Amino acid sequence: MEIFGISTALLGSQLLVGLINGSFYAILSLGLAIIFGLLNIINFAHGAQYMMGAFVAWIALTRFGISYWAALIVAPLIVGAVGVLIERLMLRRLYKLDHLYGLLLTFGLALIFEGVFRDQFGISGESYEVPELLSGGVDLGFMFLPIYRGWVIIASLTVCFGTWYMIERTKLGAYLRAGTENSAMVQALGINVPLLITFTYGYGVALAAFAGVLAAPIFQVNPLMGSNLIIVVFAVVVIGGMGSIMGSILTGLGLGLIEGLTRVVYPEASSVVVFVIMVIVLLVRPAGLFGKS
Amino acid sequence: MTSTKLKMTACAAALAALSFNALAQVSGGSVKIGVLTDLSGTYSDLAGSGAVLATQMAIDDFIAKEKPSFKIEMVSADHQNKADIASNKAREWLERESVDTVTELVTTSTALAVMKVAKEKDRIAIMNGPASTPITNEQCNDVSVHYTYDTYALANGTAKAVTQQGGKNWFFLTADYAFGHALEKDSSAVVTANGGKVLGSVRHPFPGSDFSSFLLRAQASGAQVIGLANAGADTTNAIKQAAEFGVTPKQSLAGLLMFITDVHALGLKPTQGMFLTTGFYWDRSDETRAWSKRFYDKQKKMPTMVQAGQYSSIYHYLKAVKAAGSDDTAKVMAMMKKTPINDFFARNGQIRDDGRMVHDMYLVQVKKPTDSRYPWDYYTIKATIPAAEAFQPLALSRCPLIKK
Fold first, then answer.
1. Looking at chain B, which terminus has fewer C-beta neighbours within 10 angstroms, N or C?
2. d(Cα A210, Cα A52) in Å, to the nearest integer?
3. What pTM was estimated for this model as a whole?
4. Residue B372 in contact with residue B335, Cβ under 8 Å?
């Protein structure tokens, strides 16, 4: 069967692959959006923290025999704890200054992290096996879907919408949102805003590490794996609107699908289509699709 | 003074004059080698610090064995795979630090940029890491040597072998830049020449990380062989994801540019059975093992062909300087081209007038995990491709230095 001369099998498979990539975009841009929303920090270390999540999972498996399933919890905790330290020791001093300082600091940190891992593990990277329970695949008729990829979509959407629920529907989330609006007022009401901020940064970083663990069995675990992805994810955040929670999730998924479509029609453009959309959105709606101007 | 004494004094004076003479001809009494390579990026495992180490080993061995009358120094720098950084650094070395030869130069664009500077300053460029054929064709010059391998030799070795063994229908997964296009073009020609057919190709952005959608296209093409016209992380990710999506083992993959570090990073499970062409394998002979073990003790990794070639080329260069008694570019180049190369790295090696060093290449197959008996036991050598057949024949050369 064909639509506009494109076989439905090809279209279906590329859209599904787009959705898988979109899940990565969603979870990464969500972390960035949360951090920006409350801390006003543009976290350039996000890609490096994603990479660290993947490496922690790999080290946990090869050196300590910690399984993939445990790594899904352990790696975000460890990398999130590193995030907490960064916030307490460094970022904290920059809140009163221009955005640019936070950006430069986190960019510097990203370069340092990547340099250290490159020095330790080289550039070719390490292989992480797909966990046994999720290996193999199913024939969907129009494509062969590896079970692990299906799991990525489920895990990432669960975490994304869980996070959205926590922020939009719980008391903790209400404090967070209030802190974003007017932190001095919230502080005056007796809520420990600095602790809230530390927690938020740690959580955003943990999300990146979680995405890293999800990515480890798919991609070669390599010190630069985050630096290629982070630019696209920033574009996603800009398109969705800086700081918008639901916006970043939906934009992440949507752009994954659009990339998938582009790969059917004109594969060479698939790496730039996100940026073309970014330019258009910035021209038409400078605050982003879901942002408040 | 007795006549014996007189003779001895005369001899001593003559000897002194001779060695003084030799010293005078090597400018400053010292040969300086500049290793310009990727120390931090994509190619730092296959060249990088290992290439710097190989250069130092060549210098140390040369001093110990050949006891030269001149001093040898080495400097190294990271060119970050950027042509402008590479040419600026090379210029600085050649103009101000009296470097005699700039070497390694992984990434074709940096190599081409430095070759121009070397020609302008009349110094030597010895290349081991870069792969593209224009280095010894359109852009060739008389001060450059392309030593270890090139895309022609790789395509010729791998594509020919796979096609002849029955892999007639090909589909290419190609990195969308000059190198990928060149590799696809060279390989397609070999496939067709050997009775095979190219069903199509898809070009992926460089660098890419998710190849699933491109692999699905390759899968849908129904081709027996998927040729990977890319390198480094692109190749390793594509191989890994091909296994994930069930592309392999139904269809087989041909890695057109793969290094032993790539196989090491992926492990044998997803790479087993793949054919590839290499200029060097550490476990080929007693000589290669002995050298590679020394390298391994320092680097904790077995050498790639680029690193082994780096040692061999620098040793050959230093021998030429000694034999010519000079570091004058024309004299050294003539000596390097005149002297055949036979060492642990190269068999039947000879540098041609277009700058191409031709030597035996090896077609290897990646072992099954069960057949690998010790660390880095990765390849079975399937065939030796003789020097005369491995590289592009001079008759097809597009280098202006070659008169036809």
1. C
2. 10
3. 0.84
4. no
* CA separation for the pair B180, B146 (Å, rounded): 19
Residues 6+ apart with CB under 8 A from B370: none
Instruction: Say if A138 falls within a structural domain.
Output: yes
How far A175 CA sits from the closest chain B CA (Å)? 38
Q: What is the pLDDT of residues A17-42, one digit of tens each?
A: 999 999 999 999 999 999 988 888 89
Tell me if A280 is assigned to some domain. yes
Chain A CB contacts of B210 below 8 Å = 17, 21, 218-219
The strand ranges marked E within A94-247 are 137-139, 144-146
Domain enclosing residue A70, as ranges: 2-284
Distance in angstroms (rounded) separating the CA atoms of residues B317 and A140: 60
Query: Is ipTM > 0.85 here?
Result: no
Mutate to test the interface with B, among A15, A123, A231, A271 (most CBs of B within 10 A): A123
Mapped onto helix, strand or coil, the DSSP state of residue B341 is: strand
The B residues from 342 to 401 touching A (CB cutoff 8 Å) are none
Q: Is there a contact between A122 and B261 if contact means CB atoms under 8 Å apart? A: yes
Question: The domain spanning residue A275 has which CATH number?
Answer: 1.10.3470
- Report how far residue B48's alpha carbon sits from residue B263's, in angstroms, rounded to the nearest whole number: 18
Are B317 and B67 contacting, i.e. CB atoms less than 8 angstroms apart?
no
Structurally, chain A folds into a number of domains equal to: 1
Q: What is the pLDDT of residues B13-37, one digit of tens each?
A: 544 444 444 444 788 899 999 999 9
